Amino acid sequence: MKLTDTKSKIEYELIDKAVFFRKHGILAFGDLHLGYEQMLKEQGIMIPFNQLKQSTGDIMKIINSLKKKKLKINKIVILGDLKHHFNFKKEEKFEIRDFLRFIEDAVGKDNIILIKGNHEKIELDSREYKDYYIQDGIAFAHGDKIFQEILDKKISLIVLGHLHTAVFLKENSGVKKEKYKCFLAGKWKNKEVIILPSFFPMREGTWINEGGQDRENFSIIQKKNLHNFNIYITSKDKTYCFGKLKDLN
Amino acid sequence: MTQITISKERKSEDIEKTLHPFIKEWFFSKFDDFSPPQKYGVLSIWERKNILISAPTGGTKTLTSFLSILNYLVILADKNELEKKIYAIYTSPLKALSNDIHKNLIEPLEEINKIAELHGRKLQEIRVRLRTGDTSQSEKSKMARNPPHILITTPESLAIVLTSKKFVEYMKAVEFCVIDEIHSLGNKRGVYLSLSLERLNELSRIWPVKIGLSATIEPLEEVAKFLTGVDSKDKKRDVEIAKIQFSKRIDIDVLSPVEELINHENPNKEMYKLINELVREHKTTLIFTNTRSATERIVSYLKDKFPTEYGEDNIAAHHSSLSKNHRFDIEERLRDGKLKVVVCSTSLELGIDIGYIDLVILLGSPKASSRALQRIGRAGHKLHETAKGRFIVLDRDDLVECAVIQKEMIEGKIDKIQFPKNCLDVLSQQIYGMAIYKIWDVDELISTIRKSYCYSELGKSDFFSVISYLSGDYGLEKDWVYGKIWYDKQERKIGKKGKMARVIYMTNIGTIPEESFVTVKLAPSGEKIGFIDESFLTRMKKRDVFVLGGKKYSYQYTKGMNLYVKQEVARAPTIPSWFSEMLPLSFDSALEINKFRELMKERFELKKSKEEIMSFIKKYLYTNENISNEIYNYFHQQYEFSDIPNTKLITIEKYIDERDNKKYLLVNSMYGRRVNDVLSRAIAYLIGKSGNRDVEIGISDRGFYLASENLEIEKALSHLTENNIEGILKEAIEKTDILTRRFRHCATRSLMILRNYKGENRSVKKQQMKSHFLISSVRKISKEFPILNEAKREVLEDLMDIENAKKVIRWIKEGEIKIETDYVRIPSPFSLNLILQGHLDLMRIEDKQDFLRRMHIVYTQEIEKKGKIDYAGEYNEIDGY
Q1: Phi-psi category of A51—alpha, beta or left, where left has phi over 0 and alpha has psi -120 to 50?
Q2: Domain check: are B567 and B697 in the same one?
Q3: First vs last Cα of chain B: how many Å apart?
Q4: Exposure winner among B82, B393, B507, B698, fewest CB in 10 A?
Q5: pTM of this structure
Q6: In the CATH hierarchy, which top-level class contains the domain A2-247?
Q7: B753: distance to nearest CA of chain A, Å?
C-alpha cells in the first residue's frame, strides 16, 4: 500500500516490517535485536542460532520485491536497537558484523545510516551511530529520546521504532485472538509520525491495544497520545488498515 | 524371561531362627509377632531374593524391608566384620519420607546397641546417612571419606552419587536396594530411577537384591519387572511378589450435605456444617480436597464459621506450596495428636507416619480407586484396625463417581499403573551422566539401557537420535551450543565433553518440572484466594474470566507477583482451566461408571419400579437411602429426557445457544478426561480441517463439547480409525500451548534449558516466557528432533491416553459402541455440566493470514457502521502494494 502524508505530500509504502520512501529511495527499519539468542543461551536456554539468517532473509525478500518493481534503494536507515546486549558479547559482535556486511553488499557502505537505540550502549566498532538522521523534511530516530532538531518546523514527518508495536485481533466471541506486528501512523506535536514494528523475527512485539504496559518515559510519545493513530498490518501481498487504535476492541 | 513367582507365607519360627539374638530381643520387645508383610517378605530378603511387597498403607512394609538387612549388618557388626562400603541403598521419592525413615532406622539401631551393651557387648558402628538435595557440602564430603552402611536417598541424589567417582567405589558391592513408594513412580521420575538402577547394576560386582515396597497397586507383574529390569538370560532378575490384601476393615460411605443437590441453593454452607459434625464426632480428622486453593478455603471457612471449635492450635492446612518447615511442624503436631483437623490437597497421601487418624474425609472424587484406598488407608494407621472414610459430594456427577469408586474399593478393583516408556528426555540426561562416569562402548551402553523395564523396547534409531542430539549433530555445534558428549563412530565409543560437564549435570539433574506461581488476591482487600501458574497469567488480559477452586473470577490488575481479581458471577469463563491440571478420572473407573449406567438403563427399559431400582442401587453401589435416591432421580431425569449413555452407547446432542447463536456438539463419552482429550482433539481437528475454521473444545471426564460454525461430526467419526488417530492427533497438538509447555519440561530434562548455569539459578519465569523461542527454532532444525518427539509422546501417552482412546475407536468401528445423535433445545441433565465448564482450548486450523483477512472485513464493516472512516481523510490510499 502506498500512503501519502497529506500535508507534506511525502509518499511512502509499508513493506513487511519496513518503510520505503520511493522518491528518496530510503528503506528504513529497526529493532533487530541481534544477539538475542546469545542472551537466551546465557540464561541457560540452549537455543540453536537462527536469528541472523532469518533477519537477512526477511530483508532479502524486501529488496527483491522492490527490485521487481524496478525501484532502487539508495539508502538504508536502521532505526536503532540493531544489537541486543547492553554489554560486550563476542558472539553478538560477529552477528552484527555479518549483518552489516550483508546490507553493505546491497547498498554500499556509505549509504547505510545507523541510529543509536537504547540498546546501543557500547560501541562494537568504529562505525558512526547517529542520534537521528534528517533528509528532506523527514526525521528518522529511535524513539527513546527526544531531540530538538526533529521537532524543528522544517520537519514534517518523523519515523520511529523502539515501541515494538503489535496488536491483538480477536473475534467477537472472544475465544480466538492472534497477535500481529503493526505500524502506527498519526499526528503528534503537529507532525506526522510513523512508528515501525520491530524487525525482530522471533516475537510479534508489545500489544498496544489492550493491557500492554506503559512504562513512564519509555518512549517520547506516551501511549495515551497514540489513541488517534491508525493501525496498519502488512501481509504477504497487502497492507490492511484497521482504523484508529482507540476504536480497536 | 524374568521369572515371577508368588511369595509364600513363612512360619514365624523360621523367620525367628535367622535373627541375631539382639535383633530378636529388640523385635519382640516391640511386637508380639511378625506382621503379614513380614511373614511374606523377611525370609525372602534374607535368602537374597528380589521381592515386590504390595500392602495397604499403615502396614509394616518399611520394617519388613529392613529387618533382614539390619539383621545381616548386626551379625557382621557383632563379629567386627563390617567393611568400608555401602551395603544397602534405600531410595524414596519423598524427601520428607527419607527424613522419617532416617529417624525410624536410627532409633531402632540405638535400641539394639543398648541391648548389646546390656549383654556386655559393643557392636561395631552401623552408619545410616541421608543424602538428598538438602544435604550440606560438608556432610557430603564426610560421607565420601567414610561411607554409610545404609544410604538413604532420593532418585535424583542416587543419580548424582552414581556419577561421583569417589563414592561409586563404595557402591560396587551393594547387597540390598530398597525402592519405596513404587506406586508413585508411574511417571518420569520412575523412568529416571529405573535407569539409575541399571547404572548401579552395571557397575556392581555382585547383584544388588531389589526390594520394592508399594501400596495396593496393579498390575503387580509389570511393577515387578520395573523393579528388577528385564534381561532374558539373567536369572538374577527373577522376582517374587508378595500381595498383602487390605487386612484392615474399611468403613466407608458417600454423604451428601443436602437432600437434593440440584435444587439446593447453597450446598456449600451445608457441607461445612456436615464437616463440622463429623469432626466433632472424631478425635483426629484428615480431609483431602484435591486442590491447594480448596485446602486453604476450607480451613479459613471452618475457622470463621465455628470460631469456638477451630483455631490456630487445632486446625491446619497442609499442601506442597507451604514451606518445608511449616509442613514438618504440622506433621509433628499431627503425630503428637495435637491437631483435630488437617486439610490437605494430595500432599499427605504418601507414606510418612502421621500418627492417629480416626476419620478421613474425601471432598470430591479422588478419581481412582487406588488413590481412594491410599487416602482412606491413612485412617486407623497401626493403632486401629478399621479405616474409616467418608466421601462428601457437591454435585450429582461427583456423587455417581464417588459411589462407583466406593464399590471398586469394597470389591478390591484397583486401577492400573502405567510406566512411561522410551522417554528420550530422561534418556538424554542419563546418558550424559553415564558418559561423565566413564567412556562407554556404544553397544554396552544401549544394552545397559535396554535392561531397564522402561527402555526394553527402545529402538536403535531413537537411541541414536539422542546420541546425535547430545553430541551436537543437527548442525548445532557451530552455535557453540550443544556437544555434551563425543561419539566416535569408528571406535564406537562415547564419552563426556567439556570441563563443565560434571557441574552442569549435577546442578541440573532431575525430572520434576519447575513451575512458578502467581498469588491470586481479591481486589481491593487483598484477600488471598489461591495460586495460578504463571504461564496462565501471561495468556490473560483485563476482564478475562477464569475458574479457580470452583469459583469464577475476573482479571483486574497485576502488581508484582500478585494478580488482583473480582468475583464474577454473570459471565462465562473466557480462559481455559487446564492449567490447574486437574486429576483425571481413571479409565477403569470410567468403565465401571459406564457399566452402572448400562445396568440402570436396562432397568428403566424393563419398567422396573422405583423401589426395585432403588434396592438395586443400594446393593450394587453400597450407598445409603438418601444417596441412592439422588442417583435414582438423576438417572430417571436423564432417561426421561432422552437416553442414558453407557458402555454400548455414546450420545451426541446438537445444540444452539440462542444467546450468541453458537453451535455446540455435546458428546457424552464416559472414558475419563485423558481419553476424551484425545477423542475431542482428533475430531475437532478433522472438523476444523474440512471447514478451515477453528473449533472450540471443552473436555471433562464424562465427555466433551465442540463449538464451531459447522460441525459435521459424522464425517469426522467415519474418517477416524485406530490406525490413523495417532497421526491426526500429532498434527492436532502441533500448535497448542500444551505442547509448548510440555516441550519446555522435556527441554529442561534433556538439558537444553539449564536451570542452573554459570553459577546462577535462572528463574522459571524467564524460561517459561522464552521456551517458545526454543520450540520454534527446534522445529526449524528437524521435524524429527528427539526432544520435540518426546514432548509429543508425553502429551499423547502420559498426559492423554492414546492407547485407551484407540480402544474406544475400535469399539465404535466394531459396532460395540453405538452413536446416537440428536438435536436438543436444551442440554440433557447429563450434558449440562459439559457445557457449563467453559472452553478449554481452541483447535487452531485457520491460517494466521486468513484470520487477518477475515478480521479486516469484520473491522471495516464495524468502522463503517459507526461512521468512523475519517482515517481516509488524512491518508490517501493510492494503490495496492
Answers
A1: alpha
A2: no
A3: 71
A4: B507
A5: 0.85
A6: alpha beta
A7: 4
